[in-house]
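re: ur question from yesterday

yeah so i grabbed the chain u mentioned. its 215 aa long if i counted rite. heres the sequnce exactly as i have it in my notes:
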Amino acid sequence: MYVDHLTGQGVRVALIDSGVNPAHPHVGAIVTGVAISPSGENGVYLDYLGHGTAVAGAIREKAAAAELYIVKVFDRALTTSLDSLLRALDWCLARDVHVVNLSLGTVRPDGLRPALDRAASAGVIVVSPRSTGGVISVDLDWTCPRDAYRYDDGVFFASGYARPIPGVPPDRNLNGPSFAVANMTGFVARARQTCASVPAVLDLLIRHARPASHP
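ran it thru and got these structure tokens back, copy pasting raw so excuse formatting
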């Protein structure tokens, strides 16, 4: 694949999730981060759930040199408010990130639409599940290898497995649509390294998509 030699160098990637464990070997350096909740904002973005850390690991695996920005909206459970999500997206836009990983769904996608539109107008690529409606819409394909993705009718498909942990079978590790999004974000960060515009990123990704059965 054309983007295989790229590392995401210079690409600012924000993760809106449960924070990260910055000491985890899969995470690496963090540029900055914030925790956003109904009670306000603070700089303590430690992950108590493991989800955001696993998402960061999947992205870092494919885009080792990307600059990670952490936005914690989940604390002790994978639930948050629409207001916190909107504030999280605005926080990302204020820091001129290039890519936002949104490995989550919402029962109020219409409420998120204005913020997603602002991101698109600013040239920010939001990678999210198909139901959320980001610039890059992702669905999972359990048969897709983790080093590949495919494209069909406006949707990208990627593996739903997280980055492997030695000694842990894939089906015992975290998995699901969140990690299809995270895996795709890694590919997006690679493409964004060499393409300055959103249309160019999309064109590159579509041209170099391949079937899940590709060797």
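noticed a couple things. The two ends are 11 Å apart (CA to CA). also Strands lie at 12-17, 30-37, 40-42, 67-72, 99-101, 125-129, 136-140, 149-152, 155-158.
anyway ttyl
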